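## Example pair
The file below holds two records. Each record gives the amino-acid sequence first, followed by its structure token line.
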Amino acid sequence: MEMDLEGLYSLDLQALALELAERIRSPRVVDAFCGIGGAAIAFARRGKQVDAIELQASRLDMARRNAQRFGVEDRIHFLEGDCTEKLEPAADTAIYLDPPWGGPAYGKLEQFRLKDFSPDGATLLRQALAVSPEVLFKLPKNFDFADLQRISAPTAILRNEFRGNLEYYTAVFLRNGG
């Protein structure tokens, strides 16, 4: 995988992203913060059509090249820009949210809150829930889960572990039948 310094600490491990892709019910997925493409590639490898949105052109270019290396570039539509301006209603599309956590410094917080994401996690979650029946939100290990309850109760909280170590959580929201 081609990556920059931010990609080094924010990349979704393929093993975990592939497991998550298996759980997504929708045939399409919007990876709202695709970065260098880790999750988008895994979703495409599991047969999903993916819209990969990234604010930084250089990182989107890396995501394109990484998708080519995995042979899934034909299943991913790359979009440069702010995801908050690109999320549109779609009944057959899941939204995967993995907004920046603030780099390695996030671990120094006793409890990570929705307001600590950039952009604000509460605003992102409300927007995603308004346009999609299936939303997945990647959360750090030190996340304050009571914060989610103020917006919407998740259908499930997944523990994403690699080699027996907790890496992060994923909150899954399913509208109409979870």
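Second record, same layout:
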Amino acid sequence: MTRRFLFGASEIAALKSKSASSTVPNPSCVEIVSALVWKCAMEASRSNSGFIKTSVWCQAVNMREILAKPLADKYLLGSLVGLSMTKTQLDIDNQDLLTLVALLRKGMEEFKENFGNGISGEEAFEIFKEYGNLLRRDGIEIYSRSSMCRLPFYSADFRWGKPLWVFISSVDIKNAIKFMDTRDGDGMEVILTLKEEDLAKIENNKELLAYSQPVQQKMRTTAKL
């Protein structure tokens, strides 16, 4: 099932203050919301399965923004996307927001260090091969996040005026997560597609509800993976 959660500007500011640490003194909005959603998803999975699973947070990376030598034309067509994967330790009780934010920051920094000078076809193949292998393993939960934040969707005007609301369609894949800016650019919309039993737990997670507002509309997916 798919569910939407809205994070307002004041809630994001409060979450950022709570998630800052000496390791990551100024976490980004995407990092702090990622850490909170990941934490709540792990708790829901453990509650429903009855045991702790290794958890992997996979995030699509816009390679154009991390290359040491930018492309000659930043408006060239075509996707240039990498995949950063961050794993947690098995002791979920110690996975607080500060720890998860630090893990996410470290994973991205290592990705930039490894591929900031470019990525070969062979390296890209190995990354996605590892991702595919993880998906097929038992005892592992993979969460795949794509962030559409800072993309100018709300500036699009096809002579009908600028859009009131932009929504990226959900996909029939469990643990798929999308981030979108709100129309004013100050908040964030999180679109979660999870197993129904996990989503039921997350919808009642007090920590998540302290910083976000669930949207009442529910959309049922047609496939179960």
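Notes on the second record: Residues 218-225 have pLDDT under 50 and may be disordered. Strands lie at 2-7, 54-62, 81-87, 140-147, 176-181, 188-193, 213-214.
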